[in-house]
């Protein structure tokens, strides 16, 4: 190298060295390793979980129209008000403590601790435990919509006679002391999930839970004044059923927690079971009542949606046929004969459809679950694993007893706090729209 070039070369090397980042080699290696091991957000999965959260939220207004169309016109707004208030109250409860109790770090398999209260530590980065390809806040928001609709389902048992103040207090107590613990047991690291219980989208957590609470409410609150009445607007009920069917795709397929083949399977099994159940109930009506009814068809469809919920990510579309068929027949028997035999007034058959349908769905999951559909699941009885069937039965029985007993206690406590659960007989005869809210759904009332 020429002597005059050497100083210039030395100066360039010195400048490059001074301007280079002063990151130790080992730190750079560690940073790269952390980047590889940390959960990464997948935009497709995130888009699907956010869309599913919206679909599940739509189910609560759908439920409002489904229930609202089935009550008398003087109680239409009361049902809509209760459903929308559940959206408000449970959202606040979930943000403050509900999410942490349900999905927070486990305490002896029974409940989550309060580390995530007020959503502390729940941010835009993925969780290293739940739905690791989407923001933690997205998973939290998705699960919130399940927590909202579950206590709203109970409304069907005490519609047309429950004080609004009692509804508000009971909803908060029930969500905190019944829904949150059971959600933790199954999905949040609790003992049921550890035991191997399968519940893809909420047959146990949502439907058995709410259904048993509905039975307790029907028994504690007592019968309505006077005779039973036909629905005031079947078209509104059909609209609500259609919204439920549509929103349920987010409920079930969203529980795959990603835009993947498992989500596709859940959509197909959900749709097949629902269609079979709706048609089967119509045929049951045709045979027993001599005419197929619209009310029967939409009730059957909802029963099919309920029953396939725990199984949709574990069974094939062909086996979904049997789950849908069984849900229609079993729930038809419960609503048509069992309720009449025992004389309880489950106004809109919340127990007969959601409770009974959820029980059938949880047990049916133990019959037809297959690892060929979901390798992360387990084989059921019909695929050579009777142990899974017994696990499903055990989880079902525990949830039934806990939900019923706790709901009974909370109803009694709520009654003490509000001076009784029911409106007065005069208020009931006038209607809850006027007596509870000073409003009417229509220009005239009956």
Strands, total number? 2
Distance between the termini: 106 Å
Name the structural class.
Answer: mainly alpha
User: What coarse outline follows from CA principal-axis ratios?
Assistant: globular
Supply the CATH class. Mainly Alpha
Strands ordered across the widest β-sheet: 1-2
What is the CATH homology-level superfamily?
Ammonium transporter AmtB like domains
Counting DSSP H or I runs of 4 or more residues, the number of helices is: 16
What's this model, at a glance?
The chain has 446 residues and is mainly α. 69% of the residues lie in helices and 1% in strands.
Which key phrases capture this entry?
mainly alpha; Ammonium transporter fold; 16 helices; two-stranded antiparallel ribbon; 446 residues
Note down, in words, how this protein is organized.
With about 450 residues, the chain is mainly α. The protein has a single domain (about 40-420), classed as Ammonium transporter fold (Orthogonal Bundle), CATH 1.10.3430. It has 16 helices and two strands. The chain has helices at about 5-20, 25-35, 45-70, 75-105, 135-160, 165-185, 190-195, 205-220, 235-255, 260-290, 295-310, 315-340, 350-370, 385-420, 425-430, 430-435; strands at about 105, 110. The protein has a two-stranded antiparallel sheet. α8 packs antiparallel against α13 (about 350-370). The radius of gyration is 26 Å and the shape is globular.
